[in-house]
Structures are given as structure tokens and as C-alpha cells.
Amino acid sequence: MVLLAAAVCNKAGKALVSRQFVEMTRSRTEGLLAAFPKLMNSGKQHTFVETESVRYVYQPMEKLYMLLITTKASNILEDLETLRLFARVIPEYCRNMEESEIIDQSFQLIFAFDEIVALGYRENVNLAQIRTFTEMDSHEEKVFQAVRQTQEKEAKDQMRRRAKEIQQKQREMAKGGRGITNSGFGSSSYRNDTGSSVIESSLPEPSSKPSYTASSTKPSGPSKALKLSTKKKDVDSFVGQLESEGERVVSVNKSVSNAVTKSSTPAIDQEAVHLSIEEKISVSAGRDGGLNNLEVHGIIQLKINDERYGRIQIGVLNRDKKGVQLQTHPNVDKRLFSGSSVIGLKNPDKAFPLNQDIGVLKWRFQTQDSSFMPLSINCWPSENGNKCDVNIEYELEQDELELEDVLISIPCPTGVGAPVVADCDGDYTYDSRKATLQWSLPLIDTSNKSGSMEFAIAGHPDDFFPVNVSFMSKKSFCDLQITDVKEIENSESVRCSKEVLLYVDKYEIV
């Protein structure tokens, strides 16, 4: 084994944080750490010191030492490089190099140490990757939270509409229901001998019937409408609190708008037959150019809102030239689709299910050809003294696409302040809590197919990766279109509503 242990200790040799990467007893670890101060020569600055069995590689950090204990057979150059990476990790979690700060962040430091070394050997990671791994930032969690927020918003809107309906009914009952209520109970003292009309007999007498006034029709206890209003205030206050803490609620929804759109209420009114084309794209590209992987998964979903149009056939126009792999639902007639690009059930006497989203056709496309990328990102950081100048630019590679709500997230070093942006096409914000510079563009098409941003901040070129991108588009990437929908019995065309959505599952430049 090469690396035995890593520790942060003071000048007296007291270990504040220690992580062993091989099986070692506590007494042996404490003995090695206690022997370290005795081996150092006062007044001389070195980077390592050796004994008969181990080598101590260390770096002073104000009043503390970052210490690595290795075998004597290890490569000293690799040990020094590993030591520098360990030393750069400490300021990520500790603002002050004090013993109390190190102890408070001990668990976070141990988790970071485990990302650097595994079983005594260094992993091929940089500082940005360590930050990503320790944060455990899950895209699936973001999607889940975004979908949940959208569902809560829809439920809140629905409850608000329901509350208005209840209030409207109560007002109508207050106006027109009083006469029916009073006449139903009847009041012999109010009726006259000549026989007044129904309207006159339904009018209450204010002096003798105060309980049937308009104000009495209102419920005495708290109504559901009042409860809904209270919930709305609670939600709004919670959102306001998030915004006051620095969270941009709108921008977060934008960053995952590609996922939210899937479950949100459709923007168009659905006809008796509704068809939606959904595609999700995953891209991993290199920072020096080239495409590691591009994968697109698509599906056509059918929803029958009227049982009269359950027995239909759907015409599909496939103008894709990329080589997409198509697959129909098991209940769909494959011969009919392969022969005439028409989607229909194997048994034409059966109907599609009612009020259900049914996936009738799905497809997959995968490539490593960079010419198929919808959007290319070129991030070029260059060191300039004690800071780093970063130039980042985008270019639309597929002219037929229109990308909406584009958000480009660039990680930045922590503890050095906000970046200084010199030039930017579009808008930008800096999230200090996540140390991320977010570059937003409402639309990228042929009219603004390229743009750039330039900023400066203290850091290392590796600190600005991976760059994450999110967007959505109302045009299909694989260029599949719905031509028409016809009834099987009379071959008449059926009016249908259509939706197309392309969204990002993962889009990063590593």
C-alpha cells in the first residue's frame, strides 16, 4: 500500500482529523502521529521526513499541518501532488484554519478524504469532482422535487378554484335560497287572509324573523374557503422566506423546467384525442472538445378523452436521418406500422383505453458524433496571476431547434467571493450558497445561435467543471411528426391536439 493515513494535526502532533486507508490499530496510528513533531528540525522547512518504516509528507497550514503517512516505497512526486490536493480540500470546508473549525467539519473532511484515496491509492479526481461527489447532488432528486412542487401548485390552484365555486354557491343560496327556505318552514303569522303571492309569502319579516336575514346564511364556523386562504398565505410566506435566504425560486424552476413540463397542466386545450411527443436527451461532452456520449429517448403518448373516438389509427411521418431505433407497443400492429407508418391496434375491433396516457411508440438514438449535439459549450479558463480568466461560449449546432429557458451552470471556487463578470450575452446570477454562476438565456435559435460570457475569479482551471446545461424545446430532436388521426370505421379525420416537448435529462461538459 502507498498511502497509509491522512491527518490534520497541530504543531504538537495532536490529531484533529485522521483517516486511515489501510488496516491499522489505533495505538500504531497514534504512535506515528506522536512521532511526527519529534522528527521535524526546528527552523527548517521541508516537505517530508522519513523513518525506518514510513515517510511523513506534510504541508504547513498556518498553525496546523496537513500530514500524509506513506510507505518508503511510494513515489514522492505523486505523494506531493496528492498532498497539494488534500491541502486544497481543507479551505473548501473550513474558512478559518483553527482547531475548532477543523473539528466541527471533521465528518465532511473525512468524506472528502475518502474521495481522494481508496485502499491506499489515489483516485483520479479533481477538486470540482470531489465537491460534486460529497454534495451528492442528484438530478433525479431535483426532478422529483420539481415535479412535486408543480403538483402542489396545481393542487393549490384547484383548491382555490373550488373555494371560489363554494363561495359563489353560498352567495347564490344567500340571495335566492332564503325565500325557498322560509316558505318551506312557513310562518302563519306572516300569511294574510287574501292570499298573497309566492314572492310576498317568501319575504321574511325583519322584526319577527331575524334568524332568516342574509347575514345568517353565512356559516358561523370557519369555512373551507378560509382554510384554503390560510394555506395559500403559508405557502406564499414559505416561498418568500426561501427568496430572502438567497434561493431563487423562479430560477430553480427554470433549471428543471424541462422536467416540470412533463407533469404540468398542458398549455393547450385537449381535444377528444390528444397526442404528445416527449424526448429526453442526455449528453456528456469533453472540456477539450469531442462528444463522449449522446443519447435520446422519445415516446408518443396517446390519450382518448371521448369514448366515441377509441377506435382510431394514427399516421406518423418519420423524416429522421440520424438512424433512430423505433419500437412499437406490443398491442400495436407492427406490420401496419412498418409498411405504412400507421399506428393501430392489432385487433381493430378493440378501442384504446379511455382517459389514460398510453405509450404507443418509443424510440432511441445514441451516438458519439459531435455533429449531432444540439448545443455546444466551450469553457476556456486560463490562469492570470492569482486569478483565473474564464471565457465561455455557446453555439447552436442544430438550426431547426429552438431552445427555450436555457440555463448554463458553471461551478466556481468557494470562499473567494463572487466572480467579476466583464461581458455577458443574456442574464446571469451568482448562487453564493452553491458557488455556481448561472447563465440564463430565454431563447436560443438561428437569430442568436452563438453567444459568450467572460468573468474572472480566483481559482484553478479544474474548478470550473463540470458545466451543466438545461433547456427545453417544442420541436422534436429526432424529427418525428403526427400527420393525421382517422377513425377505423369510416376513415374520417378526427380533430386532435398535439404537444411536442424536448427536455434535458443530463447535459454536462466534464
Descriptive account of the structure:
Residues 200-211 have a biased composition (Low complexity). The structure is a single chain. By secondary structure, the protein is of the alpha+beta class. The protein folds into three domains: 3-131, Beta-Lactamase, CATH 3.30.450; 140-245; 266-510, Immunoglobulin-like (Sandwich). Helix content is 30%, strand content 34%. The protein has eleven helices and 23 strands. It has helices at residues 26-39, 76-93, 99-104, 106-116, 127-135, 139-185, 198-202, 224-244, 249-255, 257-263, 334-340; strands at 3-10, 15-20, 48-50, 54-61, 64-71, 117-118, 121-122, 273-285, 291-304, 312-318, 325-328, 342-343, 358-367, 375-384, 387-396, 403-411, 420-424, 427-431, 436-444, 450-457, 467-473, 480-487, 496-509. The strands form five sheets. Strands 11-13-9-8-23-21-16-19-18 form a nine-stranded mixed beta sheet, covered by helices on one side. Strands 2-1-5-4-3 form a five-stranded antiparallel beta sheet, sandwiched between helices. α6 packs parallel to α10. Mean pLDDT is 79; it is low at 179-232 and 250-266.
**Percent in helix:** 25-40%
For the largest beta-sheet, the strand count, sense and barrel status come to:
9 strands, mixed
Taking the alpha carbons of the first and last residues, their distance comes to 30 Å
Characterize the overall form: elongated
Q: What count of structural domains?
A: 3
Highest CATH level, the class of the largest domain: Mainly Beta
Q: CATH homologous superfamily of the largest domain?
A: Mu homology domain, subdomain B
Structural class: alpha+beta
- What is the second-level CATH architecture of the largest domain? Sandwich
CATH topology of the largest domain: Immunoglobulin-like
Strand order in the sheet with the most strands: 11-13-9-8-23-21-16-19-18
| Distinct helical segment count | 11
- DSSP strand content: 25-35%
Pfam families: Adap_comp_sub, Clat_adaptor_s
Subunit structure: Oligomeric complex that consists of at least the alpha, beta, beta', gamma, delta, epsilon and zeta subunits.
Keywords: Cytoplasm, Cytoplasmic vesicle, ER-Golgi transport, Golgi apparatus, Membrane, Protein transport, Transport
Biased composition (Polar residues): 180-199
